[in-house]
Amino acid sequence: MIFGRSKPGSTPLDGVDVVLADLDGVVYAGPGALPHAVDSLNRAVEEGRRVGYITNNASRTDASVAEHLTSLGLHVAADDVVTSPQAAMRLLNDLVPAGSTLLVVGGEGLVVEVEKAGYVVTRSAEDAPAAVVQGFAPEVGWAQLAEAAYALATPVDEGGIPWIATNTDWTIPQARGIAPGNGTLVSAVHTAVGRLATVAGKPERPIFDLAVARTGARSPLFIGDRLDTDVQGARAAEMASVHVLTGIDRPKQLLAAAPNQRPDYIVEDLRQLFEPYPATIVKGERTRVGDAVVEIDGVDLRIVSAGERQIDLLRAGAAAIWGSGRAIFGFRVPEQLYADPFRVR
User: Fold this and answer.
1) Cβ atoms 232, 250 nearer than 8 A
2) What is the pLDDT at residue 9?
3) Residue 57 confidence (pLDDT)
4) Which band of pLDDT confidence, cut at 50, 70 and 90, is reported for residue 316?
5) pLDDT tens digits for 140-186?
6) Hey, what domains does the chain have and what are their CATH numbers?
7) Which GO terms describe its cellular component (predicted)?
């Protein structure tokens, strides 16, 4: 059988009218572009596809993100960037009337969208806000989190106000390494108040639905580097997905991916969007991708042929485990299968 959505000999981009890409870990890490990302995304535009960008990072405006991407050599306008604060405002429009006061936990990227949506910003629970909206910014600290906790002290079933989180990414990739993300900050408030936020960004649908509506996509493809936000969100939005190995989740995580976090395609970098994607062929207990072949033998996942490319071996191993109906802890997996020569250094 063929694993994934592609036909034999086709590329991940065949039939795609809009490419939607995550930013951190896909286009850049910190301020600098990741290898081959800019050239590949520009090529997609040159070949007639629209390219949009979806980011859970709420610290910057769409205009500032577009300016950053332009400085890297991409052809981007502010309208090509869909941010989690924009998705949060779409949710809030159904919950809180314009003109209401919102307690904002976050930075400029969130404040700008709150004001554009017609709301009044406050930083204090004493101003009786109609809702709390929380997003990541490097300057968020204890004082802002405490104000959110004060405002959210009343449970929802007792008349408490709405709480919207732009996203709940546990981590965020930076030039110096992996740092805590908005999910850790949202969790701090949750620990204090004992209630959960409604999430606007990935992996929830609002941000994907907003991107589709804005770009007019009929057959979109989403590119991400995280399984629990990017791939899970794309699947929830019924969108084809690519996992690129330039960011957070590595081969080990791919092999162990839950059913709702399994991408349609796995690539080393964005150049492989334009390469024919090898079919995954399963015959009995053997799975072949290109010239890489693995075999399930009881509790052992054996490498029959490593092939010439580590990426095809990883694809074969992932397909074998995913197609078995068994979790990864039900196998003995050779280290060669999850070797990671793909990490960008």
Assistant:
1) no
2) 79
3) 84
4) very high
5) 999 999 999 999 999 999 999 999 999 998 888 777 888 899 999 99
6) 18-83+203-274 (3.40.50.1000), 85-199 (3.40.50.1000), 280-338 (no CATH)
7) cytoplasm
CA 335, 341, 344, 345 dihedral sign is: positive
pLDDT at 1 over 50: no
Count the alpha carbons within 13 Å of 49 in the hemisphere toward its beta carbon. Answer: 26
d(C-alpha 335, C-alpha 345), whole Å: 21
Are the CB atoms for 246 and 225 separated by under 8 Å? yes
pTM above 0.70, yes or no: yes
> How many Cα atoms occupy the beta-carbon half-sphere of 4 within 13 Å?
27
* CB neighbour list of residue 119: distance below 8 Å, 6 or more residues apart: 92, 96, 98, 99, 100, 101, 102
* C-beta neighbour count of 268 within 10 angstroms: 18
Q: Interior CA angle at 253 toward 251 and 257, to 5°?
A: 120
212 to 147, 164, 237: CA distances (angstroms) = 35, 21, 10
| pLDDT at residue 8, rounded to an integer | 67
Q: What is the pLDDT of residues 247-301, one digit of tens each?
A: 999 999 999 999 999 999 999 999 999 999 999 999 999 999 999 999 999 999 9
Nearby residues of 126 by Cβ (< 8 Å), 6 or more positions away: none
The two beta strands, 163-165 and 171-174, are unpaired
Residues annotated as catalytic are 22, 24
Mark 5-29 as b/e (b = at least 16 C-beta within 10 Å): ebeeeeebbeebebbbbbbbbbbbb
Strands 101-105, 131-134: parallel, antiparallel or unpaired by DSSP?
A: parallel
**Residue 59 contacts residue 138 (beta carbons within 8 Å):** yes
Instruction: Map tokens 């406050």 to a residue.
Output: 122
CA distance 224 to 324: 25
**242: confidence class by pLDDT, cuts 50, 70, 90:** very high
